[in-house]
């Protein structure tokens, strides 16, 4: 009878493990499907739901079926309390956050993911498998995973918090070329500490904790200093890079705990973020190496020639110009998000199309303050996806455009990127609004863009400025078009 009971327990344990692995596999498949569906606005909402379902399954399966040394997870009260608190906070944030604050929210979430990975690494280091240390010393895979999680997680945490502060405006850029060398020294120090700790041989991991705290401190400092010199115009690249860091730390935790769901989710986020970072670097004409050492950003005044005279246009004249055009291209930027004018922009394009005008939106990859910011903004206003044209494609037909309407964009339409070698943004691909027959710029004032340089486009003979809040301005233009 005892043998039957023991056999039954073993079968139950094995069956529970198998079911949990199947749940993790199913969750991983849902992650992949959800990520795939995020590639199109029409399916993005459903993709988010599917990926979230996968995460819920993974969490529920772990809580119910996971066992450690034959024991189920304890402290369920604390766990469910934390889950409930996180659910409430997340729900409130998601409902309350404004679209203009989405980049800050993404940075904050990235930072929290990095912080969790760092805490896990610090907790797990003293518990490195003693048998593994006895066989291989500190030079083993488990130790390497912990250090990678610690370093990348802490850099992601402090870097994301600095990015959050810079986007929100209460942390200013530090423009200093010496930071390039400081960051290189810090990187070398991090690599040196990791190499030193992993070559310590067969020691008690707890004895190395003082050195691990030094590694933590250096990594946290590097996270601060590599983001500090970066200008807001380059922030989409930074957010994308930090997002990939957070994914990598999740994958490291998956390795550490042998968790398929964490591993797959982390790999997906890390690889997607890395690919996006490379694309962002290409769009900003930056090298990934310079991103890592924090050696890029706005700042510095471009050498300017005589800029010319600003010419304005009234809402009535703009309405007439738009109504009798054949092709109109709207070039949105961060100002559109600030004014929350995306709904009026869509209302205007519907009115114009009713008059036989073809209207498209030229989307620069780094317009706004995070990757895809303008796509999200316009999707919120139900702008059809086929109206959103990537900047490269839009440039091919810009010669045939009757009116290019620049709404809140600055640096991404600045001709200095192609004409002025002394400009900090020289070489950056732009939307070539200057090729259109008429250029209308909706702008609150003559303030410089986030790259802190002047824009010659505003002084060109073909350009007319319409000053004011974009929401109010577009509202008046819409009324004028309705009356034509």
Question: Could you walk me through the main structural features you see in this protein, from its secondary elements to its overall organization?
Answer:
The protein is built from 18 helices and eight strands. The chain has 484 residues and is of the alpha/beta class. It starts with a helix and ends with a helix.
Descriptors:
484 residues; alpha/beta; 6-stranded parallel sheet; two-stranded antiparallel ribbon; 8 strands; disordered N terminus
- Radius of gyration (CA) equals 26 Å
Distance linking N and C termini: 92 Å
Helical residue percent band: 55-70%
Could you give the count of β-strands?
8
Characterize the overall form.
Answer: elongated
Structural class: alpha/beta
Low-pLDDT segments, ≥5 res: 1-13, 295-305
> Could you give a short account of the major beta sheet?
6 strands, parallel
Which series of helices and strands comes N to C? HHEEHHHHHHHHHHEHHEHEHEHEEH
Count of helical segments? Answer: 18
Determine the strand fraction and express it as a percent band. 5-15%
Mean pLDDT: 82
Q: Reading side by side through the largest sheet, how are the strands ordered?
A: 5-4-3-6-7-8
Topology:
Blueprint: H1 2-37, H2 41-65, E1 67-68, E2 71-72, H3 76-96, H4 102-124, H5 130-136, H6 141-168, H7 178-198, H8 209-227, H9 235-257, H10 260-284, H11 288-292, H12 315-323, E3 327-332, H13 334-339, H14 342-354, E4 358-363, H15 373-380, E5 388-390, H16 391-396, E6 403-407, H17 416-419, E7 438-443, E8 463-467, H18 470-482
Parallel strand pairs: 3-4, 3-6, 4-5, 6-7, 7-8
Antiparallel strand pairs: 1-2
Helix pairs in contact: 1-2, 1-10, 4-6, 4-9, 6-8, 6-9, 7-8, 9-10, 12-18, 14-18
């Amino acid at each position: 009878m005892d043998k039957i009971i023991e056999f039954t327990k073993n079968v139950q344990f094995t069956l529970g493990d198998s079911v949990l692995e199947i749940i993790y596999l199913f969750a991983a498949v849902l992650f992949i499907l959800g990520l795939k569906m995020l590639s199109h606005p029409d399916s993005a909402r459903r993709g988010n739901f599917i990926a979230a379902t996968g995460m819920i399954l993974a969490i529920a399966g772990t809580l119910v079926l996971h066992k450690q040394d034959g024991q189920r997870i304890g402290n369920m009260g604390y766990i469910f309390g934390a889950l409930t608190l996180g659910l409430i906070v997340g729900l409130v944030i998601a409902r309350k956050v404004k679209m203009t604050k989405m980049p800050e929210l993404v940075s904050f979430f990235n930072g929290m993911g990095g912080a969790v990975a760092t805490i896990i690494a610090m907790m797990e280091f003293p518990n490195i498998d003693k048998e593994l240390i006895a066989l291989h010393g500190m030079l083993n895979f488990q130790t390497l995973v912990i250090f990678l999680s610690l370093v990348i997680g802490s850099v992601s945490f402090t870097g994301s918090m600095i990015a959050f502060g810079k986007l929100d405006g209460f942390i200013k850029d530090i423009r200093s070329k010496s930071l390039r060398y400081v960051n290189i020294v810090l990187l070398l120090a991090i690599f040196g500490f990791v190499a030193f700790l992993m070559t310590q041989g067969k020691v008690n991991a707890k004895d190395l904790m003082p050195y691990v705290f030094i590694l933590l401190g250096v990594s946290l400092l590097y996270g601060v200093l590599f983001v500090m010199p970066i200008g807001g115009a380059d922030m989409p690249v930074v957010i994308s890079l930090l997002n990939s860091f957070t994914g990598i730390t999740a994958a490291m935790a998956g390795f550490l705990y042998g968790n398929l769901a964490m591993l797959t989710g982390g790999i997906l986020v890390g690889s997607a973020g890395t690919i996006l970072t490379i694309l962002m670097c290409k769009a900003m004409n930056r090298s990934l190496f310079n991103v890592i050492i924090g050696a890029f950003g706005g700042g510095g005044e471009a050498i300017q020639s005589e800029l010319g005279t600003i010419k304005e246009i009234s809402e009535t004249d703009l309405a007439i110009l738009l109504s009798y055009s054949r092709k109109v291209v709207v070039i949105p930027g961060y100002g559109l998000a600030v004014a929350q004018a995306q709904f009026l922009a869509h209302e205007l394009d519907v009115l114009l199309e009713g008059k036989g005008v073809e209207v498209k939106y030229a989307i620069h990859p780094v317009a706004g303050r995070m990757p895809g910011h303008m796509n999200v903004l316009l999707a919120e206003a139900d702008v059809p996806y086929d109206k959103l044209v990537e900047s490269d494609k839009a440039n091919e037909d810009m010669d045939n455009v009757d009116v290019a309407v620049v709404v809140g964009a600055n640096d991404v339409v600045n001709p200095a990127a192609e004409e002025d070698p002394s400009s900090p943004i020289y070489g950056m691909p732009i939307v070539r609004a200057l090729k259109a027959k008429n250029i209308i710029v909706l702008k609150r004032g003559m303030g410089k863009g986030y790259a802190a340089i002047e824009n010659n486009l505003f002084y060109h003979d073909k350009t007319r400025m319409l000053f004011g809040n974009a929401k109010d301005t577009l509202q008046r233009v819409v009324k004028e078009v309705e009356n034509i």
